Amino acid sequence: MSSAAQNTIFDVAIIGLGPVGSLGAILCAEAGLKVVVVEQQGAVYTLPRAVNLDGEIIRALQPAGLAATVQRMMQPLRQDERAGFANSKREWLFGGNARSIGSNGWQPANMFDQPELETFLRETAQRHPNVTAYIGYEMTRFCIDQELVGIQAIGQDGEISLRAHYLVACDGASSLTRKALGIGWRDLGYDQDWLVVDVEMIKPHALPNEVLQVCDPDRLHTFIATKDPYRRWEFQLNAGETAEQMLNREAIRSLLDPWTPRDTYRIRRAAVYQFHAAVADKWQHDRIFLAGDSAHQTPPFLGQGMNSGMRDVINLAWKLRLVQSGCCAKTLLETYQAERYDHTHDLVSWAVDMGHLMQHMAAIEAAERVGDEQPKMKQTSLKSGYGQGREQPPIRSGIVLTEQVSNEGATGYLLPQPVVRDARGREIRFDELLGPHFALVSNGPHAFDEDTTSVLQALDIQMIDVSTLEIVRGKFPAVLKGGEALLLRPDRIVFGHTDANISADTLIARLAASVKYLSQSHATCPR
Question: In the CATH hierarchy, which fold is given to the domain comprising 3-75+111-187+280-347?
Answer without folding.
Answer: FAD/NAD(P)-binding domain (3.50.50)
